[in-house]
Amino acid sequence: MTKPTVLPIWLLLFLLLTGCGTTSYQFATAEQVRLENTTNKTDINNLRRCRNSAHYIPDTSQLYLYPERTVKINIHFVNNTDRTANFPDEEQARQFALQMVADANRYLRDNQPMHLPVGNTTPVLPIRLQYQITRDFEKPGDDGIYFHYTDKYFFNDHKNQRTLFNRWQYDNYGIQKQEVINVFIMPHHPDSVRSASYPKSTGGVGTPHWVKLTGVYYQSQQKAGEIDGNPYYFGPWFAARLLNHEIGHTLGLAHTWNTNDGCDDTPRHANCWNYSDRPPCHEEVSNNVMDYNTYKNAYTPCQIGQIHYRLSADGTTQREKLVEDWCYRQPGMDVEIGRNDSVNWECFRELRGNLRLKKGSHLNVYCRLSMPKNAKIIIEPGATLVVEDATITNTCGDTWSGIEIGTNRKAEGQLVLRGNAQLQQLDHPIPQKVISE
Ligand SMILES: [Zn+2]
C-alpha cells in the first residue's frame, strides 16, 4: 500500500521562495548565440532544398503551416464601341464576373480525385488557394471590374494565335499591373460569330501578369443541357473552369497531356474533352485542371506544390500577386514545436503568430522565415533552434520582436546561427559577435 503523495507545506514554500523549477525568459544576448561555420556546399544544398516544390505540398496533419493563399485578380470586359461583341449590359457582365470568381473559388475549395491514370490512388489534398477581386484604392468607386470600348483590338480571332498573345489590352488597360493578375474577357468578332466555319469554342492564355478568356460571352448563350426539362447554359460556372486553367498557367503550371510538367502524378493521355463512344475517349478522360477537358476540377499534390513554391519563394512574379496576410499577428495562429520533436523547415514560410520551441525540441530553419509584427520566437530550456544559411525577418518591411531564450537551473534554450544565417528587422537585435576561426 502506498501513501498518497502530498508535498509538505514547508517544501512547497521552499520551492516557491528559491524558484526551483521556474524558467526565466530574456531576449537572446551575444553570449547565448552559438555561431558555426558551414562548407560552401551547404549553401548550394540549401538553395536546392528551398526550391524543391515537393516541400510545399500541404501536410494535412499540420495544415496550419500551409495557410490558404489569396491571389489578387481584376476583371476587364473588352467590347466594340457598338457594344455588340461582348456583354452589352455592364451590370449583367459585372454579375457574371462576380459569379465566375465565386464558382472558381468553389472549385478551388473542392478538389476532386483524379480520373487518370485509371485506378489511381493519388491523394486529394486541399489546394489552399483563393482569388480575390481587388479594387484600386486610388480610384474612387473602383470595384476591380472594368469595361473598355474600342474598335481596335476588342476581339480574339480563334484562327490567329497572335490575337490571343497580343498584349495590347494589358499594356493599354492594365490596372495595378505588378500586384494584380489582370483578367481580360475577350469576345469573338461579330463577323466570326456569323461565319458557319469559324470555331466558336472558348479559349484562353495565362501569362505571369495577365490572363485572357476568349469566347466566354458567346458560350454563355449556348445551351449546356436540361435539368427536369429546363435548359441551362454555359454560364459563369463554365468560364470559372477556364479561369482556373489559365490562372494555373500564371501560377507556373504546364499542360499535362503532352508535355513534361515536372509532375509524376499527372500522366500523359489522349486529351479527350469528354467521354464518348469512341476509343480512347470511352474510358480515359482527364479531369485535371491543366488539360483540355470539360471538368478541370482536379489538382494533384505535385501541382499544388508547384503553385505554392512560386507563391512562397522571394522574388517571383507570382508572389507579388498575393494578399499579404502575414504581416500582423492573428489570434490562434501561434505555432509550437512539440516536446522532444525534431523538425526541419525546408521551404520559404511566413508565420502569423509566435513560434515556441517546447522543451527538448529541435528545429532547423533552412529557408527564409517571415515573422509578423510584435511576434517572437521562444526557445524553452533544452530546446534548440538552428538557423542554417537562412534569414529570419519580417518581409512586410516592418519589425518583429525577437528571440527569447528560456533558462532554468538545469538547462538553457540553444540558438545556433550556422553559415550565412541572418536575423533581420528585430526590435531586440542580438549584438554582433565575430566568428572565431
Ligand atoms: Zn492551357
CATH superfamily heading of the largest domain: Collagenase (Catalytic Domain)
**CA-CA gap between termini:** 61 Å
Question: Could you state the oligomeric state of the chains shown?
Answer: single chain
How much of the sequence lies in strands comes to 15-25%
**Class of secondary structure makeup:** alpha/beta
Large-scale geometry:
elongated
Name the CATH architecture of the largest domain: 3-Layer(aba) Sandwich
- Please state the CA-atom Rg, rounded to the nearest Å: 27 Å
- Which class of the largest domain in CATH terms? Alpha Beta
Q: How many beta strands in the DSSP annotation?
A: 22
Task: Report on this structure.
- The strands form five sheets. Strands 3, 4, 5, 6, 7 and 8 form a six-stranded mixed β-sheet that branches. The chain has a five-stranded mixed β-sheet with strand order 1-20-17-14-11, with no helix packed on it. A five-stranded parallel β-sheet has the order 2-21-18-15-12, with no helix packed on it.
- The chain folds into two domains: 141 residues, no CATH class; 252 residues, 3-Layer(aba) Sandwich (Collagenase (Catalytic Domain)).
- It is α/β, with parallel strands linked by helices and 437 residues long.
- Bound molecules: zinc ion (ZN).
- The site of zinc ion has 3 residues, from α8.
- Zinc ion binds next to α8.
